[in-house]
Structure formats: C-alpha cells, structure tokens
Amino acid sequence: MTIVKIVLEVVVILASVLLTMLILLHKGKGGGLSDMFGGGIGSNAGTSGAAEKNLNRLTIIVALIWVAIIIALDLISKYKLA
Predict the structure, then answer these.
(1) Cα torsion through 7, 9, 14, 18, rounded to 10
(2) % of residues, the chain, pLDDT over 90
(3) Looking at residues 14-35, what average pLDDT do you find?
(4) pLDDT per residue as tens digits for the range 33-56
(5) Are 15 and 62 in contact (CB under 8 A)?
(6) Contact 2, 82 (CB under 8 A)
(7) Contact 66, 19 (CB under 8 A)
(8) What's the pTM?
(9) Integer angstrom CA distances of residue 39 from 28, 46, 48
(10) Least confident of 26-30, 70-74, 77-81
C-alpha cells in the first residue's frame, strides 16, 4: 500500500503545480492593482471565449482531482492503510 501512497503523493504534487499554472492563465476580471494604474482600460472583462471556457473546465477538473487525492491520502493516513 505504500506504493499507492507514494503515487498519490506524486500525483498531488503534479496536480498542485498544474492547478497553480491554470489559475495563473486565467484572464483578470478587473478591479485589481493594475486597474489603478490604467492597465485595465482596454480589456473586455465581460466576454469569455471558447478558450476561456475550456480553461475554466480544465481548472475545475484538476481542482476536483486534487481534492479527491487529498481526501484519499487523509483516509489512508487515518486508517493506517499504508
């Protein structure tokens, strides 16, 4: 069972890095520090294309996988399965 735990730990690390990158890829919605200095003047915060929708879906899927693995690792540790 230790092999399963090690694999899950590696996958959660990879998912964490991927989730961080996916979140950083999202378009800013305005109201941040960049708007204070004029960075958000020409942006359309209300529109969302197909790429943005797919990025949202992928981010949600990776986040759900990340949460599921965290719960699985907790259950493994709690019941001393590994």
Answers:
(1) 130
(2) 59
(3) 81
(4) 555 566 555 555 555 688 889 999
(5) yes
(6) yes
(7) yes
(8) 0.73
(9) 11, 16, 19
(10) 26-30
DSSP character string of 43-78: --SS---HHHHHHHHHHHHHHHHHHHHHHHHHHHHH
- Give the type of residue at 42: G
Q: Amino acid identity of 74? A: D
pLDDT at 41: 52
Inter-residue contact 55 to 23 (CB < 8 Å):
no
Give the per-residue pLDDT at 34. Answer: 55
Two structure tokens written together for 59: 């981010």
In this structure, what token pair is assigned to residue 7?
């694999």
Q: How many CB atoms lie within 10 A of CB 69?
A: 19
Are 59 and 23 in contact, with CB atoms under 8 Å apart?
yes
Question: What angle do the packed helices 2-25 and 50-78 form, to 10 degrees?
Answer: 150
Q: What kind and span of H or E run contains 2? A: helix 2-25
